[in-house]
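User: Hi! Is it possible to get a structure for several chains at once, not just one? Here's what I have:
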Amino acid sequence: MAAALLDSVIEELAAAVVMIDANDLASIDTVLRGLERLREAVHSSNESEELVALADSFIALEKRLGLFDAAADAEALSALSEAVGRLQSCAAKIAPSPKQSAPTAKATGPSAAPAASGPQASATSPQRVTRDEETLGLIAEFLSESEEGLARADQILMQVEHADAGAEAVNGLFRIFHTVKGVAGFLELTEITTLAHTTETVLNRCREGTLALAGKRLDVVFDATAMVRRMLAELRAAVQESVPFATRENLEELLQRLRALTEDGIPAVAAGPAEPTPIEPAASVSSPDFAPLAEPTPAAPRAAGGASKLRETVKVDLERVDNLVAMVGELVVVEAMVGNAPEIAKSASARVRNCLAQLAKVTRDLQDVGMRMRMVPVAGVFQKMARMSRDLGRKSGKQLRLVLSGEATEMDRSMVEQIADPLVHMIRNAVDHGIEPPDERRKAGKPEEGTIRLSAYHEGSSIVIELADDGRGLDRDAILAKARAQGLLGPDDTLSELEIHMLIFAPGFSTAKQVTEVSGRGVGMDVVKRNVEAMRGRVGISTTPGQGTTFKLVLPLTLAIVDGMLVACGQDRYIIPTLSVIESIQPTEGMLVTFAGQVEMINVRGHILPLVRLARLFSVTGAKSDPTQALVVIIEGMGRRVGLLVDEVVTQQQVVIKSLGQGLGPTRFLSGATILADGRVGLIINVEEIAGTTVERRQWTANESAAAPAVV
Amino acid sequence: MNTISTTASGKGSGIPANSDLAGKYMTFRLANQDYGLAILAVREIIGLVDITRVPCTDSFIRGVINLRGRIIPVIDLRMKFGMEPCQATEQTVIIVVQYATTRGEITMGVLVDQVQEVLSIEADNIEPAPCFGVGTLSADFILGIGKADKRVIFLLDIGRVLSGDEAKPMTLGVKA
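Assistant: Yes, the chains can be modeled jointly so their relative placement is included. Here is the combined structure:
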């Protein structure tokens, strides 16, 4: 029984290794999981010392894989596949009939990693190949990527034909075939996987220097490239026209020729290890009757009569996309300028009005399309988080599970990059402070395994990233005590629940009793807040003692556009991001409070907020000086609310954000600029900075003895 | 805030030889004096447009304008040089200049009283920048002094006039 289990584990691992792709963290993760299970199985079976030694030899490799960054570490990969090959042959010696493994693999099915469906599995069960929307997307991506790769391969081969095959060239070829193999394996395109794998084996030999890539071998690799290309073309046709993916008769012949190369090539260099590529059994070489792969599922959810469309993609220089989006932004502004021009409004003939309405609609649609071009799903970042939470769980000795949802939610490309850092800190925080150790959880009547939910969804015109743990919740008293100890609070300050929660975002704040590898230095959560606010987003916390904590990041859909409130102050116009505006009120005499004739405050339903006169802050002339005649916009930034006195709110509108340009020097209190409907420049107010200064001032007045203002 | 700049340093080795300075200059007037900018630095000349004031910046920065969708700062060269602010007249224009800095290219508008013409100045007609003597402006940003038709034209190094270290008004004691 133990042997059978071991077998199935090794099989799974081999399948996972075939499909590993340096750029796909999920695939690496699968392999790591496989390795972990392997070690457990080997140690529990005590089958043979040789196996135990082999399994342990993976630890070093595992470390390397663990450090795996997006950069392709092809060397580690080939070392890994070789080691797995040795493992397979070793296991085969122990278990006389490896075929037995098949049923056991099914038996352990539920616990098997998703990648367990290796090429072998697919060869025997063609029905598994479903062509749902998502798979189609993957196939389209695979086709365009592989075709690109093959074009590059041809180029390299051509160069090699005329000059010697440099290591770089062979490596390049190897990588191309490796990628094709990986993705094809994942898509269960057995034929392509086999061909790519066999070619890759030849190239690997060349890379190691045991074969020279020249003459006859070069021709065969050329043929293999051509064959892969033909197969891709057929795959495309097969999927589009919903016909089965035809088996190629001469594929087997080409495979033979490829294999012959590796075999007769060995004597070329004496030191070559004589073993043929060991993973081969995993690829279904022995079953030439490949399943018709592109068999469409009869219940395909398409109304359009069977033929499914591939969603093709084109790679475009990012700069061009940005340019396009910027120009669309211009168009939006110009369109507004035309629409609002008094001359046009005067001559409002029905035809002009119609045309203008049409123009406005097309412009809006265009803007929408432009924005969407920069959108990418959050899946990539989420996967990284899954990986990291696993490592964290191991380091901290806590059992935890990360549940992802809404990975397909799209957001602006640059924002996806910017949320990665905050997410790392939030997960660290959840693991270290939120999730309790297993025994404590058991006592509290919770499952030992802690759950962290990471989800993304749309809410109005914002994107919400939510991280919820089912841990112990925020410890209100510990936070308060720590804040007092650190001097963030006076002993008698009373804070609202929200303000207490916001304390954890203060720089250097940590309630951890000791600094661990995972967290406790207090740098994390303020990074979260800073990054999120840099994206003009908000952080919200809700927590229930003993039940867990939920962090909610509310982010704008894109960084290029902001919903703004246009306010007037004297002759000037400013834009306040709507996301930071809580409300706007016209104050009455009774709401205004002044301390020592200088520091103005406003009493909003019992909350005393500092009042900042925008006119004074920005030295605007001609603004209304009587607050009761003006308007107070309550804004929130850095967890503080502040009343901002302006003359009036002109309108609410979406504005395209532009940089203020270099050469101005530091611009305090402004985060950018935009072009208003009349073509003038409007300045966007940096709410965080305005709210931040009042904190500074408050502290300053609080302990006047201090020479310099304390900066939080 | 007063800054004392050592005038002698302006005559250091950084000043290029006169022969390198020969070429075409866009000349303009500030308070009845001619100045010149290397024509390659000038991108275009636009009439006076609405300038949006940017609060909390130096006084010589008049604000920002919308240059066909790009937002660029505009400086008042008169104020930069410590003179009275530029009064808008029919002839007031904004010269849009572009120059390279360590942080990349910067495009900026320069408000001047009046543009003159593009002059070709020979090396023979360019004098090295003079020593201004203690207590006046730094001469660092003057490439040389051109002569044409009995006029004297201060040839400016626009990068130095506008960039980083010189971001403060170049006045001394006289005008704070």
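Chain A touches chain B through 29 residues (CB under 8 Å). The CA atoms of residues 590 and 603 of chain A lie 8 Å apart.

User: Great, thank you!
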